[in-house]
Amino acid sequence: MAGPPRHVACVMDGNGRWAARRALPRTAGHAAAEAAVIDTIEAAHAAGVEWLSLYAFSTENWRRPTAEVDFLMRLVRRTVRKHALTLHARGVRCRFLGAADPRVPPPLARDIADLMELTRDNRRLTLTVAFDHGGRRDIVAAARALIRDGVPAEQVTEESFARHLPHPDMPDVDLVIRTSGEQRISNFLLWQVAYAEWMFPRVLWPDFRAGHFWECLDAYRRRERRFGAVPAPATTEERTR
Amino acid sequence: MSDDTPTTPAPGAPDPTTLLGPDSLLYGFCDDARWGLAVVRATALEAAHPQIGAALVENSTFVAHPWRRLRNTLVSTQRVLSGDPAVRDREVARLNRLHGRLTGTDERGRPYSGLDPAARAWVVATLFESTVTMCRLSGESLDGPTMERLYAEFRAFLALLEGGYSDHLPPTVREFWPYYDDVLERGLENTEALRIILRRLFAHIPPPPLLRGRPAVWALGRAVAGPVAAAVVAASLPEAFRRQMGVGDLPGAQTLTRGVHVGTGVATRLLPEAWTRTGTVMSLLDPDQAAGPGADALAALRRRAGRAGALFRLLTPAPDDGGADGTAQRPADRFFTEVLDQTGDGYLEWPDLAAMAREIATRLDLDADGEERLYEAFAAWWRELVAVLDADGDGRVTRQEYAASAGSLAGPALIRVAETLFEAADADGNGTISAEEHRTLFRSAFARELIDPDTGGRYSRSAFVREFVAFMAGRRNSTSYDGLLAHG
C-alpha cells in the first residue's frame, strides 16, 4: 500500500458562502476558518505528510473591499501569534509565499518574518502558506531569473526552470484539496500541480475537519492503487532523475 | 590649518612611526572589548572639562547615536594605528578637519574649539589614566616599564594630532600624575555634558543595530544593565572628582565595579580570543558589518539571538494590533526624533545637520574638498530649513514647528544635498552608483527595486536623488538611510 502523499495543498474555499448561509458578514466566515486550518495542520502532521501548502490569499484578493482585506490581515496576524509556539513545538517549519508585498501591513510582515525565523530549522512538516501568491507570477519570476543568469535557450529544461522558481526546494504537489465543490485552479502553484491528483469535497472550508482530510488521503491512496499499472502520479525524485 | 600635517616629527618629539603601529600596546587595548569601559569612563572625565563639555553638548551625537559613534571612534583609531603612514596621516588630517568644525561658545559665553591644544591633551590624558585604572581594577596592574611605554604611545598619538609636537602633556609618567591631579582639582567643572553622561546616557541608550527590531528585549535588558553600567562607571572615577562633582556613591558600587572589571578580565582570558575582540563585539551588535574570523560561531550566536527575539515578540502582546501602523511612512514626530535630531536635545539645529554631514564624510572617507562641498550643501539646506520652518525666529526648529510644516522640507537645497551626496558616493565618477559604492555608503546591498534595469544593475543619479529626497522629507522609510542616519 502506498504511503501518504508527500505534498498536500489545500485551496481554502467557501468562507463567504459559509457566512452567507448563516446570514453573517463574510468576515465571520474567515474567522471561522481558523479552526479548520489548525485541524488540517494537525491531521497532516499526524498522517506523516511532509509538505502542506495552504492557499490563503491570492494576488487577486487585493481587489476585495478594503474593510475585508484589513480584517483578513488582522486575522492572519492573530492566528500567527496565537499558534506560533504550538507550531514550533510540533516541529513545523512555516513559510509564507509572497508576504513581501508592500501592501502587507508592517506589523504582520514582522510577525511573519519572526515565525519563519523561529521555525527555520524544523523538518517534521513544512507548512507553506501561499499568502498573496500568484502561480503565474512565480513562473514569470523564474523566467526572469533564467534570463538574468544568461542561460542559453537550448539549455532551459523543465528541471533547470524549476530550479529558478521561488522556493525551488518545494517538491511537486501530489494532492490538491479544494473545498466547497468549486473546480477551478485559480492561479495556485501552477507549476507544481502539473501531476497532482485533485479532490473537490463539497464541504465549505470553515466546516473542514481532520475527518475530511483523512477521507481525502484515503481516496488518494485508492486512486493510486487503481492506476498502479499505468504511469502512476510520479514523485519529484522519479521525474528529475 | 592642520590639513597639511607634517609627516616628519619635529626634533625631540616622540616618533609616531616607531611607537604607533599594530605592535603597540595601544593597538592591543583597542582590540580588547574591555577597553570600552575605559573609554566611557574617560568620556565622563573629558566632559567635565569646560571646553570639551561644551563641544560635546553642542555637537556630539553620542546620546542619540552612541553605537555609531563608538564604531566611528574604533575605525578611526585603527586607521591611526594601522602602521601605514599614508593611511595614518590622511586620518589625522580628517580628524583635525572634523574637530576644527566644532567651535562655538558655551552657555556662559566662553568660546570653545575642538582644536584647543590643552583640551586635546586632557582627552589623551584621561584615556591614558582610564586605561591604567581599567588594568588596576581588573587585577592586572601595569608594571613600570609597560606604563612608561603606554604613556609614550599616548604622547605620540597627541603629537600626531598636533602636527608633530605637543608640550601639553608632561614628558614622563612621573610628571604626568601631578599634571593630572592638578587638572582634576582645578580645571574641571560640573558641566551639562557630565550630567548627561552620568544620568542620561545609560538610561536612554538606543538599541544596537542587532536588537533594533526588538525594542521590548532591549528595554528589558537596559532596565537591568543601564543602572549597573552607570554605577560601575561612576564608582571607577577618582575619589576627589566624585566628591567635587557630587557624584553619589551607591553602597556596594565599589565592589560591583571591581567585580565587573575582574569578571570581564577573566572572561577575556577564558573565552576564545576572537570573541573578546572589539571588532567581534561590534559586528555582533551590528549585523551589517562584514564578518571577520570566527564568523561561523558568530552567525550561530546571532541566529540563536534572532530566534529568541522572534519568539519573545510573538509571545508578547501586540500593542499595535489595531493596524494603525499600516503605512510605510513614519509619523513626523518619530522621524524628527530618529533622524533629524542627531544630537538628541529635542531641537533641530545646525549641529544636527553637521552631524549628518560628518557621518557621511566619515563613511565615504572624503578628502578636504569633497568634505567642504558636502558641508556647504548641508549648510545651504539648513538656511532653507530655518527660512521655512523656524516660525519664532530663535534659530532652531522645534518639534512643533517641524510637525506644522513637515511637507515643505523638500526644497531646492535638499535636492542639491542629494546631488552632492551622489557625486561624493560615485567614487569613480561614472554617473552611476555601483554595488561597491553603495556598500561603502550604506554598508548594505542594493534594494532590488532601486536598480534601474536600463543602467545594467546600477543605481542611477535620478533614482538616488529621488530616494534621498523622499527619505529626508519623511515621506518614505528606507532601510539604507535608516542604517546611515537613524538611531544607532
How is the secondary structure organized here?
The complex is a heterodimer of chains A (241) and B (488).
Chain A: E1 7-11, H1 15-21, H2 26-47, E2 51-58, H3 66-89, E3 92-97, H4 106-118, E4 125-133, H5 135-148, H6 158-163, E5 175-178, E6 197-199, H7 210-226, H8 236-240
Parallel strand pairs in A: 1-2, 1-5, 2-4, 3-4, 5-6
Helix pairs in contact in A: 1-2, 2-3, 2-7, 3-4
Chain B: H1 16-19, H2 25-30, H3 35-47, H4 50-59, H5 66-80, H6 85-100, E1 103-105, E2 111-113, H7 117-137, H8 144-161, H9 173-187, H10 192-204, H11 215-236, H12 239-245, H13 253-270, H14 278-285, H15 295-315, H16 332-340, E3 347-348, H17 350-364, H18 368-389, E4 397-398, H19 399-404, H20 412-425, E5 432-433, H21 435-442, E6 459-460, H22 461-472, H23 479-485
Antiparallel strand pairs in B: 1-2, 3-4, 5-6
Number of helices of chain B: 23
Counting copies of identical and different chains, the oligomeric state is heterodimer
Q: Find the count of extended strands of chain A (DSSP E, 2+ residues).
A: 6
Spatial ordering of strands, largest sheet of chain A: 3-4-2-1-5-6
* Total DSSP helices of chain A: 8
Structural class of chain B: mainly alpha
Within the CATH hierarchy, at the fold level, what is the topology of chain A? Undecaprenyl pyrophosphate synthetase
Structural class of chain A: alpha/beta
What's the average pLDDT of chain B?
Answer: 74
Number of domains of chain A: 1
Low-confidence segments of chain A, given as residue ranges, are 234-241
User: What is the radius of gyration of chain A?
Assistant: 18 Å
Low-confidence stretches of chain B: 1-12, 289-294, 321-328, 448-455
Largest two-chain interface: A-B, 22 and 16 residues
Cα separation of the termini of chain B = 32 Å
Kindly report the spatial arrangement of strands forming the biggest sheet of chain B.
1-2
